[in-house]
């Protein structure tokens, strides 16, 4: 069904990422495996409308590439053979679920499968009454699944948004005088640079768990460098590496490979490639302000480690006339931004909630 070959690879730590260029696909889950864009190389990129399947690593990923791309090491390319009289993204997705079942058998181990193994893997496909592959069924099946998922997500988001507005008090989006002042005086504020060490203590631990350490109904989250699911790769019953208290109500997790930040308010364990930061000032809106400024200053290094750069960034923060960090201004500013953002969401909610509830009933 497919011509399957190992792709000509580039070292992800040796390429330079650019704003405009050709997709660079690595052994990652996020963004369809695309770690960034690179300049055209001396050899041609892989053709679009093909499937990529990673070979090694703790987790194996199968992705559909719609644009030309280069690859990092140990990624196979699957190109449909002429047996496919019809080829589309939905047909590819239908087949990818079967391919993923094969590669996922090798999850939890750094070693991977052999090229002959995936070439000889058999896939069951629907056929028509005349015995031909039923491409139309595959497309309609995936289309229906996508439509159902959209309905589920819409309903879930409405419920979550309603609950969030009530719990956060943001159902009232009227700005108070302090919040108006924060928005209006942004450009006239005095700013000063601060080192990361002025704002956080870097905590260390010998605990380095992974997804394979997670168990069903585990009590404590395992935080990893991944950006999806809030950085949580599973739950375990190990003794937490970090505990929450009245004196330390939260920590900040930094994903070294993804430069993702997560604020943690419950006891937790950690995987490899994360940095645990203990704030010197436990004000959640202040931390949100810092993270926004800090993350903007960290360059995208693809899947390379970001902490060596991130830890040396100087963060500019507003200060009072006496030279102290202006916590009140930052808190008012964050509240104002939240309210301004929620105005648009609230308008969307009002227009769509009735329609969504009708969809749920169907």
Automatic annotation (TrEMBL):
Pfam families: Methylase_S. One of its GO terms (molecular function) is DNA binding. Transmembrane segments: none annotated. InterPro entries: Restrct_endonuc_typeI_TRD, Restrct_endonuc_typeI_TRD_sf. It comes from the Bacteria. Residues 2-154, 191-340 form the Type I restriction modification DNA specificity domain. Keywords: DNA-binding, Restriction system. Belongs to the type-I restriction system S methylase family. This is Type I restriction/modification system, S subunit. It comes from Campylobacter lanienae NCTC 13004.
């Amino acid at each position: 069904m497919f011509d399957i070959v190992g792709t000509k690879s580039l070292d992800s730590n040796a390429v330079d990422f650019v704003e405009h260029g050709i997709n660079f696909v690595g052994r990652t889950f996020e963004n369809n495996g695309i770690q960034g864009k690179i300049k055209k190389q001396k050899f041609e990129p892989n053709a679009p409308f093909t499937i990529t399947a990673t070979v090694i690593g703790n987790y194996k990923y199968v992705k559909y590439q719609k644009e030309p791309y280069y690859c990092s090491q140990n990624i196979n390319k699957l190109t449909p053979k002429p047996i496919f009289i019809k080829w589309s993204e939905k047909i590819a997705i239908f087949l990818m679920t079967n391919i993923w079942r094969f590669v996922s058998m090798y999850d939890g181990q750094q070693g991977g499968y052999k090229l002959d193994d995936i070439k000889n893997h058999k896939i069951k496909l629907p056929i028509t009454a005349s015995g031909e592959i039923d491409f139309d069924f595959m497309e309609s099946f995936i289309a229906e699944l996508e439509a159902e998922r959209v309905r589920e997500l819409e309903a879930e988001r409405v419920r979550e948004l309603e609950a969030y507005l009530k719990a956060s008090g943001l159902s009232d989006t009227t700005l108070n005088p302090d919040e108006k002042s924060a928005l209006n005086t942004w450009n006239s504020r005095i700013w000063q640079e601060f080192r990361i060490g002025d704002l956080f203590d870097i905590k260390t631990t010998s605990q380095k768990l992974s997804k394979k350490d997670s168990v069903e109904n585990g009590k404590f989250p395992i935080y990893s460098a991944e950006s999806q699911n809030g950085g949580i790769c599973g739950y375990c019953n190990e003794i937490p590496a970090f505990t929450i208290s009245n004196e330390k109500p939260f920590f900040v997790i930094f994903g070294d490979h993804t430069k993702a930040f997560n604020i943690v308010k419950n006891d937790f364990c950690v995987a490899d490639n994360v940095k645990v930061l203990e704030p010197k000032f436990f004000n959640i809106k202040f931390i949100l302000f810092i993270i926004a400024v800090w993350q903007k200053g960290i360059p995208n290094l693809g899947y390379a480690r970001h902490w060596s750069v991130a830890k040396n960034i100087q963060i500019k923060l507003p200060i009072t006339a006496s030279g102290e960090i202006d916590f009140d201004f930052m808190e008012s500013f964050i509240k104002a931004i939240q309210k301004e953002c929620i105005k648009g969401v609230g308008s969307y909610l009002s227009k769509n909630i009735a329609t969504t509830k009708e969809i749920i009933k169907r």
